[in-house]
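Progress against Task 2.4 (sequence-to-structure conversion) is shown through the following example record, which the project officer requested during the mid-term review.
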Amino acid sequence: MADRLVSEEAAVSWEQSDDGVLTILLQRPPANALGLPIVEGLNAALDHADATPEIQVIVVASRVDGFFAAGADIKHMGKIDAEAFAAYGAALRAPLNRLARPECVSIAAVDGLALGGGLELALACTMRIGSRRSSYGLPEVKLGLIPGAGGTQRLPRVVGRGRALDIMLTARTVEAEEAHAIGLIDRLVDEGQAEAAARELAGRLRGLSQPALRSVIRTVDMSYTLSLNEGLKRETREVNKLFEDGEGAEGLAAFLEKRSPRFA
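Structure tokens generated for the chain above:
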């Protein structure tokens, strides 16, 4: 793993491994509140990823014990007017939307609380790995608000409408075992192992065909908005394009020649 690229005092730092995985680390005690320091740090880390072609997979983890991220910065929101509130919301949504792009394969490593905006950050990632001490929730209704950084849209797509409404309307906390059972997290690991498991998975994903991975994400995401017939047509176009212009031909040749494929 490369040296830390931002000082320990920064709200967000990142590490780039030799295999093209970028690990973004949230480190704003006491709870990684998603104020402007973390928002700006996330954008800086994603700028670095965009400017570094060899980075193809991103891990988002925390360096604050017991917390992935405890949500939006309530102290900040309590002191601002409606215009500033809207501006803060737009700023928070920006890096989450960048993480959610099909071109960005990302894994959230959750070893603690992921509440409010913290869960929305995890939901923006392609996959989520949680430890047995992790817990999740969208408690915004307690504040007279709703999840405003993608929660009302991404959570139903992950766990279904009924479960999403139950979680958001009751503002309850979902513990790790239930989160895994309902698909809120994709993999459940022992306490303290989420980041290592996410890095291991990221390394394996980095060794696969990146155009194929991005195509999978695009076509799956379209299944929520397209009819089955239109989705099947798009799937056909995607697989044909991978064979003609992507890495499909190399993958097939490597299989037949009994060698490892030479993907970019």
